[in-house]
Design brief:
Layout lengths: L2 E6 L9 H12 L5 E6 L3 H8 L4 E8 L9 E4 L18 H10 L7 E8 L12 H19 L1
Parallel strand pairs: 1-2, 1-3, 3-5
Antiparallel strand pairs: 4-5
């Protein structure tokens, strides 16, 4: 099974870089080399280009929800982002729409896509260090990714 582990975010916007931190830790602990580990600062149609051709994709990213507590880990699917104003703009589409467009165009879309989203405390301040509550969630997120790969 061709698998991609993809950390998303912006590594210079404090907690928005958590996806990058998690995938670097996952890379160190991967038992085999048959998993591609990558990082990107993209979404929508640009993200579609990265996932085409994989059977399974695990995405790690930061998220901000109304009731979430920093460091909380959400297990999501692409459909959870349908219609989100933060996941799309007037120049792009949300993840679920991008994947459906890819299917309609005959692209090889992953059959399995899991998103592990870590509740962020700060995604607006410039900085390369995670806030303490988000940094504390990194080991658990790494374990969850490794469980996804094993399962």
């Amino acid at each position: 099974m061709k698998t991609l582990v993809l950390g998303l975010g912006n590594p210079v916007l404090t907690d928005d870089g958590v996806g990058f931190v998690v995938v670097e830790e996952v890379r160190k602990r991967l038992p085999t080399a048959d998993v591609t580990v990558s990082q990107a600062s993209v979404g929508g149609l640009s993200l579609l280009e990265l996932v085409v051709g994989y059977d399974r994709v695990v995405i790690i990213d930061a998220i901000r929800t109304a009731a979430g507590k920093p460091g909380e880990i959400h297990h999501l699917s692409p459909d959870d982002f349908r219609g989100s104003i933060r996941a799309a703009s007037t120049h792009d589409v949300d993840l679920a729409t991008a994947l459906e467009l890819g299917r309609q165009l005959g692209m090889e879309i992953p059959g399995e896509m899991v998103i592990l989203a870590i509740e962020a405390a700060d995604v607006e301040s410039f900085g390369e260090e995670l806030t303490p509550s988000v940094a504390a969630a990194v080991p658990q997120a790494v374990e969850l990714v490794l469980e996804q790969l094993a399962g």
